[in-house]
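EI: anyone free to look at a 253-residue chain?
SC: sure, send it
EI:
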Amino acid sequence: GHGDITAHQQPSTATEESEQCSTCEFRQHSKLMRLHAIKSQILSKLRLKQAPNISRDVVKQLLPKAPPLQQLLDQYDVLGDDSKDGAMEEDDEHATTENIMTMATEPDPIVQVDRKPKCCFFSFSPKIQANRIVRAQLWVHLRPAEEATTVFLQISRLMPVADGGRHIRIRSLKIDVNAGVTSWQSIDVKQVLTVWLRQPETNWGIEINAYDAKGNDLAVTSAEPGEDGLLPFMEVKISEGPKRIRRDSGLDC
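SC: here you go
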């Protein structure tokens, strides 16, 4: 009797193995197709026919200056599948750092007049602690100016309207831009973020403006048609302290 059972089980085991093999092959194939699609899109954005011969380290240095490319990579989970640990990297001292992206949301109505401004409030992961911040940058996308001009990127602290003094400017940056060109701009907000983390009750959000010489505000703070993915975001790099095991990379949003 036992021999019959064994004989019947063997074909089903073989079938399961072949099914697992085909699943693995399918996953591998789709992964390769996905990588090919990413490479094609990145080369297309850079207007290149083939990848330049540069090292991975140089690529790492270039990417933070090009957030749209970084978003493209994140979109396809190149940095790791379903990992929530953030983008991990190790520096020379073997302390692990983590990049955390925080997207802007609409601030509390208590700081708005006629439902404005619609941006920007940032809430932060408990991982982000004041004494662990290595770098904090606010990224803002600018619409094209009609002519070459100087743009003043301004960040103002939002306060409840009842308290008065809604526009307290806390950072400003002078930027020269060419006509008809969109661009991502970053501004250091480490000090602002440190204050928010130590005194959370002061974080009502910020208003972002980028005025050209004619007084036009070029900052994308609410998405018009075709502007998806261009809203402000904060990129925070935190230190994790020495690590023995390097974890899988990913992105924490």
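EI: The radius of gyration is 24 Å.
SC: 👍
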